[in-house]
C-alpha cells in the first residue's frame, strides 16, 4: 500500500474539515471562553455539520447537472468531468453516511452508560 496516497487523502480530509468549519488555519478549535466570557471563538457542532451536509448536497446537485447536460447532448458537456463529479458525489455521500453511523453509535454508547 502506498503511503503517499494515504497522506494526500488525509490532507484532503483536513482541508475539507477546515472548509466546513469556516476556518483556514485551525480546524475545530474551541476557545476556552472563560477569559472573556464570550462565545465568539466557539465552533458550533451543528453549524459545522450543517455546512458539511450543504457541501455534500451541492456536490451532488452539480454532478447531477453535469450528467443531465451530457445526457441531453449539451455542446459544453464533458463525459470525463461528469464521471469524475459523479464519483466525488458518491464518495462524499458515503463519507457522510459513515459519519452519521459513527454519531449514532456514539449516542447509543452514551445512552447505555450506567449512571
TrEMBL record:
Keyword terms of this UniProt record: Bacterial flagellum, Cell projection, Cilium, Flagellum
Native organism: Nitrosospira multiformis (strain ATCC 25196 / NCIMB 11849 / C 71)
Location of the protein in the cell: Bacterial flagellum basal body
PANTHER family: FLAGELLAR HOOK-BASAL BODY COMPLEX PROTEIN FLIE, PTHR34653
Main location: other
Gene Ontology biological process terms in this record: bacterial-type flagellum-dependent cell motility
UniProt protein name: Flagellar hook-basal body complex protein FliE
GO cellular component: bacterial-type flagellum basal body
InterPro entries, per database record: FliE
Domain of life: Bacteria
UniProt similarity note: Belongs to the FliE family.
GO molecular function, one term: cytoskeletal motor activity
Amino acid at each position: 500500500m502506498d503511503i503517499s496516497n494515504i497522506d494526500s487523502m488525509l490532507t484532503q480530509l483536513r482541508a475539507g474539515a477546515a472548509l466546513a468549519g469556516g476556518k483556514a488555519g485551525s480546524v475545530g478549535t474551541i476557545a476556552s471562553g472563560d477569559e472573556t466570557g464570550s462565545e465568539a471563538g466557539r465552533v458550533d457542532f451543528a453549524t459545522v455539520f450543517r455546512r458539511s451536509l450543504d457541501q455534500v448536497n451541492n456536490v451532488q446537485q452539480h454532478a447531477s447537472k453535469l450528467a443531465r447536460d451530457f445526457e441531453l447532448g449539451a455542446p459544453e458537456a464533458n463525459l470525463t468531468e461528469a464521471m469524475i463529479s459523479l464519483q466525488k458525489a458518491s464518495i462524499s455521500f458515503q463519507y457522510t453516511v459513515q459519519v452519521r453511523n459513527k454519531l449514532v453509535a456514539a449516542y447509543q454508547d452514551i445512552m447505555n452508560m450506567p449512571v
